[in-house]
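Bumping my old thread because nobody answered last time. Still need a sequence for this structure:
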């Protein structure tokens, strides 16, 4: 089994910054893509940012230029640096990782439990 544990959420004023972390542990041989999603009340979960094992990144248009995704492969950890936060960034943020266990050639998706980010105006 694989566990993803997020941290770093909280309450911040508009214009402020937060850094989210998500550490993967368990039966992991390798990790392919790692992603951050968010879900605001009454809205569908949306992709915020993604990073491949080679470091290629992509972002939702709404966060381009403000958020930066990165990863530390040695620590099986993905980060999301969020700057210039806006009230509309308020949501529960979830990390997602495609992991391959030692006993299989297949990759399987796993989700973290979510961390709340609240941006006050």
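Sorry it took so long. Here it is:
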């Amino acid at each position: 089994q694989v566990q993803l544990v997020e941290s770093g959420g909280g309450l911040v004023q508009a214009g402020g910054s937060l850094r989210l972390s998500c550490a993967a542990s368990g039966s992991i041989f390798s990790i392919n893509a790692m992603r951050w999603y968010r879900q605001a009340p009454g809205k569908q979960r949306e992709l915020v940012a993604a990073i491949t094992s080679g470091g290629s990144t992509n972002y939702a248009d709404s966060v381009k230029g403000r958020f930066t995704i990165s990863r530390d492969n040695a620590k099986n950890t993905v980060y999301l640096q969020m700057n210039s936060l806006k009230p509309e960034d308020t949501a529960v943020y979830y990390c997602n990782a495609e992991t391959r266990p030692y006993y299989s050639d297949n990759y399987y998706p796993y989700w973290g439990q979510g961390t709340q980010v609240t941006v006050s105006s």
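DSSP finds no helices and eleven strands in the chain. Let me know if any region looks off to you.
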